[in-house]
Amino acid sequence: MIRLLSDVPENFELKPETSFTTDLGLDSLDVVEVILAVEEEFSIEIPDHEADSLKTIGQTVEYILQQPDAL
Asked: Carrier domain location, by residue (predicted)?
């Protein structure tokens, strides 16, 4: 999903600590698109105040795993 939303090279290793902005070069609109894609993919709703705290791939994965309704 991340690779579809940014110009990340295929050989770039995505890690839990990979930052959406610093490492992937996403701007705030790109990050919103990532959050929307996560919501769609996992059938969850992420409140804005919680979405603002999701800065890395790992934080986002942990958030998804904590959602009982995530598919």
From this structure: 1-68
**Active-site annotation holds for 27:** yes
Residue spans per domain, the chain: 22-71
Q: 58-61: list long-range contacts, CB under 8 Å, 24+ apart.
A: 58/15, 58/16, 58/17, 58/18, 60/34, 61/16
Tell me which fold the domain 22-71 belongs to.
1.10.1200
Reported as a single tens digit per residue, the pLDDT across 22-66 is: 999 899 999 999 999 999 999 999 999 999 999 999 999 999 999
Say what the pTM is.
Answer: 0.84
